[in-house]
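Re-run requested by the PI after the first attempt was lost when the workstation crashed. Everything re-entered from the original request form. Ligand of interest: manganese (II) ion.
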Amino acid sequence: MNILDELKDAASVGITGHVRPDGDCMGSTLGLYNYLKDNRPDLKTDVFLEEPGKEFSYLTGIENIKNVPENTQYDVFVVLDCSSKDRIEPFVQCFDNAKKTICIDHHVSNSDFADVNLVRPDASSTCEVLYDTFDEDKVQKDVAECIYTGIIHDTGVFKYSSTSAKTMTIAGKMMEKGIAYSDIIDNSFYKKTYVQNQILGRALLESVLFYDGKCIFSNVTKDEMDFYGVTGKELGGIIEQLRLTDGVEVAIFLYETGENEHKVSMRSKKTIDVSRIAVEFGGGGHVRAAGFTGKGSVYSIINKIGEMIEQQYCNE
Ligand code: 5GP
Ligand code: MN
C-alpha cells in the first residue's frame, strides 16, 4: 500500500489509535499525521486519541490531538496499532460515519475490521508497517521522530524477538534524518518520575513467583495508585522488570481499574503464547506481549491464567 495513493481522492482524513495510547500508537498516529501535513497540506487531517503521556510531548503535532469525538464525516478514517473496533472507543462514531476505513497494524489478534486492512503480525511495530506505505524521500525529520519512537517502544529498544534486520534498517534511516535518538530513548522510554520508581519498587517487593518459578505476578490496587498519585498509564515499566526475573517464562502485572475489575498485562520469553490467553479473556496482543481487562479478583484471574499456561505446556 502507498498511503498517498490510497488517499489521493480524499479531502478529509481522520486518524486514531487504541485506548491508553503507547509509544507505537503515538508514533504511528502522529507519524501519519505529520507525513500528510508535509505532503498533502490541502488535506483536512485530524488525530483523535485519549490524553497522551507527557513523555511524548516532543512529537510534532501532539498539541493538535483531539480528545473528544466529532460528528464529522471523514472521507477516510485510518486506525493504527489497534486490533479490534472496541479498542477505538470513544472514537468509534468517527469510524462508523466515515466513507472508507483503513486499518494499519501488526497485532496477530487483528480482526480485519476495516474496509482495507494492512496487518503484518511479523512486523516489530505499527510504525514499521506504516513506514512501508511512505515514499522514503518524502519522510521528514518530524515523521522520523514518530517512526523511531514507535519502533523503540514496541521493541523494548531493539531487544524483543519481533526486532528484525529490517526494523534496524528503518531505524537507521530515521537516524539519518537528524533525530535526537538518545534523547528519544531516554526521555520517552526509560525516564521514570520519583513516584513511578517508588511504585515500581513496591510492585517488585510484593511480586509472587509461582509455577516452580516459571511465572511471576504482581498487582497494584486502586488505593495504592491513589496514595502515590499515579494513573494506569504511568505503570508501564513494571511488567518489563517482572519479565526480566531470572527463570521466569511468563510475567503478569495487574492494576485495579474498578470494582472487581483489573487491567492485565502479560509478557512471555520463549514458549508461552500470551496472545492466546488474552484472547480467551476478550483482549488481544502479540505472542510475547498481550493484555486484557478482566472481571474478578486478582487471585481468580491469576488462577485462570495459570491453568491456561499449564495447558499450553501440556500441549507442547
Ligand atoms: P500492554 O500489556 O502493554 O497494555 O499491552 C501489550 C499488548 O497487548 C499491546 O500490543 C496491546 O495492544 C495489547 N493489549 C493490551 N490490552 C489489550 C486489550 O484489552 N485488548 C486487546 N485487544 N489488546 C490489548
Ligand atoms: Mn504496536
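Saved to the shared folder this time. The first helix runs from residue 3 to 6.
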